[in-house]
Amino acid sequence: MAQLQIVTWMALASQQQEIMTSDQIAGSVNTNPVFIRRILGRLHKARLVNVHHTLPNQACPVGRSIQPALKRFYSDAEAAMKQQLAQVTVADVLDETLASFSQGT
Description:
The protein has 5 helices and no strands. The chain has helices at residues 2-15, 22-29, 33-45, 61-85, 90-102.
């Protein structure tokens, strides 16, 4: 239901040549904008919508510098994740899944 309401809002905004924010859509759906952004991400992966991304404000010292500054942190996090995942098998995931299911969580 929410997905259809979101796409309908986006269609209306497109017809009126307006940009609809996740806050505005969330107000219509009566939910949190974060929920809307998650659904938009799923719709984007399904190639049903194009999610508009803007560059940070280049006149702002933080906006201009945040992406290069975070690059190292993202790289370190990705390396740590790859190292952790290299130690996990599908059997490990299955065991954990079944254990969670049997505990009712």
